[in-house]
Amino acid sequence: MSKQTYRVCFCFRRRFKLAISEAPPEIKDLFDQYSENDIMTVDHLHRFLTEVQKEEKATKEEAQATIDHCLRELKHLNIFHRKVLNLEAFFKYLFGDINPPILPSIGVHHDMSAPLSHYFIYTGHNSYLTGNQLSSDCSDVPIIQALHRGVRVIELDIWPNSTKDDVDVLHGGTLTTPVELIKCLKSIKEHAFVASEYPVVITLEDHLTPDLQAKVAQLVTQTFGDVLFSPGSECLKDFPSPESLKKRIIISTKPPQEYLEAKDAVKSENDPKSGKTQVDEEAWGQEVPDLKGANVVDDKDELDEEDSNGEEDNDKSPQHLAPEYKRLIAIHAGKPKGGLVECLKVDPDKVRRLSLSEQQLEKASETYGKEIVRFTQRNILRVYPKGIRVDSSNYNPMIGWSHGAQMVAFNMQGYGRSLWVMQGMFRANGGCGYVKKPDFLLKTGPHNEVFDPKYKLPVKTTLKVKVYMGEGWYYDFKHTHFDAYSPPDFYARVGIAGVAADSVMKKTKTLEDDWIPAWDEEFEFPLTVPELAVLRIEVHEYDMSEKDDFGGQTCLPVSELRKGIRAVPLHSRKGDKYKSVKLLMHFEFV
User: DSSP readout, 559-590?
Assistant: First the structure.
C-alpha cells in the first residue's frame, strides 16, 4: 500500500506515494511532555486526561482501562505485557472510537420531569413519504427509519380510501400512492421505543367523515391499548412531563369541529404552481439559510397546514362528531379566530398546540418575537416547511428554536445541511429525542418580561476548534471515487449554526493529492448563545472543473462537546456514519 497508480490514458500511468497515518507534531510534543523514555504509564495518562482532556473526574482505573483497550487493538506491539503506551498506541487512543467528541455513556442527563413544553422535540413532517411531496410513495418504512433515529413526533395525513370505507395515509391533492393507516399504526407500535423510551406524539392531519373518525378511534385504541395516553375530551391544564409519559403514545390533532370552521379558508399551499421549488444547488444540499435576513418569499400561507388541505364533508356537523375520536386527543391543536395576536394568547386554564409554517414564523417573529417566546413557555408551537418545498427540502431550524418552538418539523426522508443541523441538535441528551430548552427561554423576569430574540447579547464564551487531520477515505471509498487521475484534494469547513450573531462557516486550505490530509489549522467562534449552538463540520474534495465532491459531515451540540483532543467520526449525506472516516480535532472554551 506504499504506492498507488492512476491510469491517465492507455499508455500513461501516474504513481503516488501513499502517506502513513502518523501523529501530528503537536501530538508528538504532548506525548513527550506526558511520558518518560518514550513510555506513557498509567500515572502519565491520568495526568494527561485531567490536564489536557479536561476530564477532571477521570480515575486511574479509567486510565488503565484506556491503556488495556489500546493494547488489545495493537497486539503487534511488544510492550503489551508492560501495560504502558508508546507513541503509536497513544495516537491510536486519541484517534480511536474510544475517544469521541460526545460521551455516549452520559446518556439522558437533562431534567425530564418538566412539562413537555419545556423541551425541543425531534419532529418529523409528512413522516410517511419516501421522497418528494408530490409523487413519491407513502409507506411505513420512513416512519420506522425516523423512529430508529430517535424522532419522537410522527405526522400522518389521514384520508378516506377509494371506497370510503377505510382510512389511508397519503399527501392529499397529490399523486402520492397511499398506505393503509393500520399498517402505519402497527409499525409505530413496534418501533416507537427502539431508540428512546420517551413518548411518541402522533400528529394527525384529519380529512375524515365522522364514521371514519370512529373507525380511527377503534384502530388506535386496539393497536396501542394501555400504551395510549388519553386524558379524555377536555383540554389539559398543564402538559405532563416526558418522564411521566415514558413508553406512551400521544395523539395530537384539532378537535374535529375546528376543521369545519376552517374549511373554506384558502386553497392548498401545496400547489406546485404557487412558487419555485427549492432545489439543492449542490450535491450535498444548500447552505443553511441565514437568519440575519430571512426573507418571506411567498405570503399566501395564511392558515395551518391542516386547514389548507381540508376537504371535509359539508354534512359533518358538531352533533355528528365521533365522541370516541375526540377523547383520543391528548394535545389539542388549532388556531383561535382573530389572527396571530389571539393565537399567541396564553390561557392559564388550558394548554394547546399551535402550528405555523416557516414563513408565518419568520413574519411573526419580526413583530411578535417576545409573544412567541411567552406562548411557548406553556404551550407547544409546531413549525412546518412551506408548501413549495415539494422536493422535501428543509429550512433553518434556529428560527424556531430561538423562539422556543418545541416541534420544528422536518422532512426526514431526504438530506441536506439543515437536516444535518437538526440531527446534530438531537445528538444531545443521549439522543433520546427530547432536549431541555435553555433556561432563558423558560424564565420570566421580576416584571413578567421574557427573553427577546432580537436583543443583541454579549459574547458568553469562545469555542476554539483545531482541525489536525483526517483519515479513513482510503478504506471507505474506491481510489477513483474523488478523482480518476490522482488522490483527492481535501479541505474542511468548520462553523456554527446558531443565532444570527453566532452563525458562520470557515474553511481550511486545500491539500492536494493526499488521502490523509493534515491541515493543522485553528479557528475561533465567539458565541453569544452557546446553549443553541451546533458545531458544523464538513469535508469536501476540491474539483477544478466540476462541483466539489462530498467527503463527509457531522454536526455536534456545542453544549455537550468534550474539551480536549477528540476523534470526530463523519457521516454520509444521509446521516449514516462512515466505517472509517474521521477527523482529529481539539476543542477548547475560553
Answer: GGPPSEEEEEEEE-TTSPEEEEEEEEEEEEE-
N residues, the chain: 590
What CATH number belongs to 116-255+322-413?
Answer: 3.20.20.190
Predicted TM-score (pTM) of this structure: 0.89
Please give the C-alpha separations between residue 4 and each of 45, 169, 228, 515, 543, in angstroms, as whole numbers.
37, 53, 59, 11, 20
pLDDT in tens, 419-473: 999 999 999 999 999 999 999 999 999 988 999 999 889 999 999 999 999 999 9
Query: Residues 178, 126: contact at Cβ < 8 Å?
Result: no
pLDDT tens for each residue of 110-153: 999 999 999 999 999 999 999 999 999 999 999 999 999 999 99
State the Cα–Cα distance between residues 472 and 215, nearest whole angstrom.
53
Largest CA distance in the chain: 88
For residue range 358-401, list pLDDT tens digits in order: 999 999 999 999 999 999 999 999 999 999 999 999 999 999 99
> 457-589: which CATH number, 2.60.40.150, 3.40.50.720, 3.30.230.70, 2.60.40.10?
2.60.40.150
Strands (E), 329-460: 329-332, 353-357, 380-384, 407-410, 434-436
Q: Residue 480 and residue 456: Cα distance in Å, rounded? A: 48
Cβ atoms within 10 Å of 92's Cβ, excluding its own: 22
Question: Can you tell me the distance from the alpha carbon of 169 to that of 180, in angstroms, rounded to the nearest whole number?
Answer: 6
Find, among 377, 369, 429, 427, the residue nearest to 399 by Cα.
369
Q: Which residues pair with 535 in a beta bridge?
A: 496, 556
Active site residues: 125, 171
